[in-house]
Design brief:
two-stranded antiparallel ribbon, 225 residues, AS_sf, Amidase_dom, Amidase, mainly alpha, Amidase signature (AS) enzymes, hydrolase, 5 strands, 9 helices
Length: 225
């Protein structure tokens, strides 16, 4: 039986399961941390920010929390350029943080954790030789689902676009790569981008981490969350 023989609900369920499997087991949020919150999350006001759920998950080390919380983009780029931080450690920190966020609010569509870490190590090797690819050398970056990234899907929340793997990058993605960025995840968007909330039939609704009964808007709701 091919995916085309399945109902659209079965295809969506399979896609979501595949996405979950890409999150390493050691990056999973313990079930007991979510049990105190009212469910279903999308129908009840829960605040993941003030309760410090990311920190309590213990997925990130103290250094990784520092990297993802205490640096501006400008500061990260500077630290990456002079070697105070490596792309490998910064990329790993942001991949882990994105994985936690996904489990809490459903903000991602595609994850490229392994590929991102491989590119980060490559960029670190270049920096050790005194070479910088560009002004964003080693910086992890997320992109919205509507942009094509070779080897992933760009469904924009449309079931009809599932199972269509991108064979090339969107121009913006190529520009980011030429500037030295590391593409690590794709983020959720409204179906066809034509709505003010990030909700679609493929990935569902992205929740607002300040109040899970609300959504973070669109079309950059996944990015915002």
């Amino acid at each position: 039986m091919t995916s085309q023989d399945l109902s659209w609900q079965e295809r969506v369920s399979k896609k979501q399961e595949e996405c979950l499997k890409k999150i390493p087991q050691e990056w999973r949020v313990p079930d007991n941390l979510l049990s105190p919150f009212r469910s279903p999350l999308s129908e009840n006001k829960n605040d993941f920010i003030r309760t410090n759920l990311v920190r309590k998950s213990a997925v990130l080390t103290s250094r990784e929390l520092q990297i993802t919380e205490e640096y501006t983009v400008r500061q990260l780029v500077s630290a990456l350029a002079d070697g105070r931080l490596t792309s490998a450690e910064v990329t790993l920190a942001y991949c882990k943080r994105a994985a936690v966020a996904q489990q809490l609010v459903g903000c991602l569509t595609e994850t490229m954790f392994t590929e991102a870490q491989e590119r980060a190590r490559y960029l670190d090797s270049l920096r050790e030789q005194g070479k910088l690819v560009g002004p964003l050398h080693g910086l992890p970056v997320s992109i919205k689902d509507n942009f094509h990234y070779k080897g992933t899907e760009a469904t924009i929340g449309m079931v009809a676009f599932m199972d269509q793997t991108s064979t090339e990058n969107s121009p913006l993605v190529d520009i980011l790569l030429k500037l030295g960025a590391v593409i690590c995840v794709k983020t959720n968007v409204p179906q066809t981008m034509m709505s003010s909330e990030s909700h679609n039939n493929v990935f569902g609704r992205t929740l607002n981490p300040w109040n899970t009964a609300l959504n973070p808007g669109g079309s950059s709701g996944g990015e915002g969350a």
